[in-house]
Amino acid sequence: MKTLRLLHRWTGGLIGLLLALLGFTGALLVHEDAFLRATVPHAADVQRQDTATLAAMATKVFAQQDRPRSVVLATQRLGVHRLYYKDERGAYVDQDGGPVLAWTSNWARPEAWLFDFHHHLFNGDAGEIVGGVAGLAGLGFVVTGLILWWPTRRMFHVRAWPRMMKRAAIVHHHRDLGVLVAPLLILSLTTGAAMNLKWFSQALRAPFTPPAVMEKASAAPKIKGGKLARDLDWATVIGQAQARFPGAEVRTLGLPAKKDGLIAIRLRQQAEWLPNGRSMAWFDPATGKLVASRDGLAQPLGARIANADYPLHAAKVGGLAYRLVMTVSGLALTLLGTLAVVTFWGNPAGTPKRRKKAAAKPAPAI
């Protein structure tokens, strides 16, 4: 038990602050749509999904000389489209394609740099791996914390804040709070690590579907497309996608990512949890003809389970109640990580600080 306690303390002291920052930024990102609705013009507009409106917007946006590589369409909670370019540039446009906001760097938009830190630690793929490893370490803290708490379970108290800012009270609060929110932490840390670490995600789903089968099911079609037509009929393209998946919500429009590539449209069917769905339709850029499609609901079981990681992690399902639950999870992780670092570096050895007794003075001679 002593070795386990030392391991828990030292690893928590070393990466507790990183977990605290991930928890805090995650709690903020849960409410991204509400922030945008309050601060961005047209963000509170009602979503429009009719073919004519989507096609007119796509024609206008993709006709620009400096056109985006893809568009993420408005949702029921966010009434603007977001444009993505090859670099950090981005923009919001209204649902008619009119300009709303544009930026040239992630640092210009709080939701952009918060996501970049939370998901990539400002370091691209390398930061994504580090964040995934931190998530696995967080799971280790939950497990070891539960083991260390068990002998002290009779002293369990529910407190949002330590009774006093002394080491013993902070440690007691740390253990009790960790136990209280353990299910939420397990959910958020597991889904976060699975999104960042491909091998971990595959290991979790391997009992349901072999990784090779999931890879094959999610691969893009090996079909070459022609040169993007200047007068592409977006109404026909989008109409074909909607006809292939009746009742589905059109979520993204993407131009070919490379030469001979295809136009890609993502759709979300009603039973799909993932905000942008996993149902896909691919088109020849030269003719606008549908050349391939993939039904997100027909993917292997393991892949469908993996598709639930993001909506569960980012509270994209369950409405306001679940967003508040995941906010509590993020803030609890912030508090646990911060106080772990404070108590550790205040006393790395973990031993109680004793006051030195003043030396007894001899009684004065009479």
Describe the protein's architecture and organization.
It comes from Caulobacter segnis. InterPro entries: PepSY-ass_TM. With 366 residues, the chain is α+β, with helices and mostly antiparallel strands. It has 13 helices and eight strands. A hairpin with a 5-residue loop joins β3 and β4. α1 packs antiparallel against α4, α1 packs across α5 and α5 runs antiparallel to α7. The protein is elongated, with a radius of gyration of 26 Å.
State the helical fraction. Answer: 40-55%
| Helix-strand sequence | HHHEEEEHHHHHHHEEEEHHH
Give the rounded overall mean pLDDT: 91
Query: Which structural category do the helix and sheet elements fall into?
Result: alpha+beta
Rg is: 26 Å
Q: What is the CA–CA distance across the termini?
A: 57 Å
Beta content: 5-15%
How many domains? The number is: 2
Biggest sheet details: 8 strands, antiparallel
Quaternary structure of the protein: single chain
Transmembrane segments: 12-31, 129-150, 177-197, 320-346
Keywords: Membrane, Transmembrane, Transmembrane helix
Pfam families: PepSY_TM
Protein name: PepSY domain-containing protein
